[in-house]
Specification:
16 strands; Rossmann fold; alpha/beta; 369 residues
Length: 369
């Protein structure tokens, strides 16, 4: 098949959607399909490199309001139309983005099949943005999802949200899949990984890996660490963003900033517990990747976590600074074995099943259209 992936951004721009598409992109290529990917160029310059088409875009909303919604330049629209005409089937990610609306219009005009993966539901931005988001989902979002040939999501709580919004088309669930490198490491390799990252070798390590934006709970993480630092626990922050100042100067804190995704498996494996008090999630790859390496986790009671990991071994769902801190203490002293946690995760998020489910869906849409 000739498959076109369309998204807001592509690597090296950080984000879970980018990682998900990259994993699928490589999996489909390994199976012999001709796959191209078009997205805004940020943070690189516009241009085409092999199957990757990076278009010029205005990214003011992400830079100033933490809303990852670039607006493509008209030259990008023409490039997208060329790619739509080339493809047998088009795969768009999330329904509210400018690129998604433009792609939907072009696929209808070109009579091409369109698959939409809806990664998230409601995201709490705060203030008027929450009202704008709700209105957009009930109008533009509902229209786009209804126009798609098929809609899938990674989490059941996203499907339930859009059912309540009024989307009549069912959202089918395809769980994420992960590369084999996400697995527990022997103790000697864990210590080696700590040395490579410049981390303390003998003290407990609490990992927070996320973009430093409000929805990820950065302020909550800082409040928890102010308590736990007094008990000898080191916080490791992997990520960057507009709230980087919140973690700067925290006691017993190492800020690695943006870690190459190719090294993240080692970082998860050398940490002792993951903290992720985020809100408005689809299902964060940080949590899934960490569990694949056997890393216990403390997360919020966000609907994403309730729907997907409430019964997972080694995972605690709790809200509030002191309850989060106490859950971290407990996880550091009495979590199940890392292999037990990883076994649970592998049973749900296998790579080959993930690629196969998408491959069969795309083949069916291309055949039926």
């Amino acid at each position: 098949m000739r498959i076109l992936e369309v998204s807001n951004f592509m690597p090296p721009h950080p984000g879970g959607i980018e990682i998900m598409i990259d994993t699928l992109f490589q999996g489909l290529q390994r199976r012999g399909h001709d796959v191209r990917w078009i997205a805004a160029s940020t943070p690189l310059e516009p241009g085409t490199t092999g199957p990757f088409v990076r278009v010029p875009a205005w990214n003011w909303l992400e830079q100033n309001l933490h809303v990852p919604m670039p607006l493509w330049a008209p030259s990008g629209w023409r490039q997208l139309d060329e790619q739509v005409r080339w493809a047998d089937v088009i795969h768009v990610h999330d329904c509210l983005y400018f690129s998604s609306s433009l792609t939907t219009a072009l696929t209808r005009g070109r009579r091409k099949p369109l698959l939409v993966t809806q990664h998230v539901g409601e995201v709490p931005y705060g203030g008027v943005l929450d009202w704008v988001q709700a209105a957009a989902y009930r109008t533009l979002g509902r229209t786009l999802l209804s126009a798609a040939s098929e809609v899938v999501t990674l989490s059941p709580h996203v499907a339930e949200y859009f059912r309540k919004v009024g989307v009549k088309k069912p959202l089918r669930i395809i769980p994420m899949g992960f590369e084999p490198r996400f697995q527990p490491l022997p103790e000697a390799e864990r210590l080696t990984a700590r040395r490579e990252f410049g981390l303390p070798e003998t003290t407990p390590l609490m990992l927070f890996a996320a973009r430093l934006v409000p929805k990820k709970g950065v302020q909550q993480v800082a409040e928890v660490q102010r308590r736990l630092a007094l008990e000898g626990i080191t916080l490791v922050v992997a990520g960057d963003g507009p709230l980087a100042n919140v973690v700067e100067g925290l006691p017993r804190t190492v800020h690695l900033r943006q870690v190459d995704h190719a090294r993240m498996h080692a970082l998860y494996a050398c940490a002792d517990v993951l903290l992720l008090p985020s809100r408005g999630e689809g299902l964060p790859l940080t949590l899934q990747e960490g569990l694949m390496t056997g890393l216990p986790a403390v997360v919020s009671t966000d609907p994403s976590f309730v729907a997907n990991v409430a019964s997972a071994p080694g995972v605690t769902l709790v809200d509030g600074t002191e309850p989060l801190a106490q859950a971290i203490r407990t996880a550091l002293t009495s979590s199940p074995s890392r292999e037990h946690v990883a076994e649970w995760a592998r049973a749900r998020w296998g790579l080959e099943r993930f690629v196969t489910d998408y491959e069969r869906t795309l083949e069916r849409l291309a055949r039926e259209h």
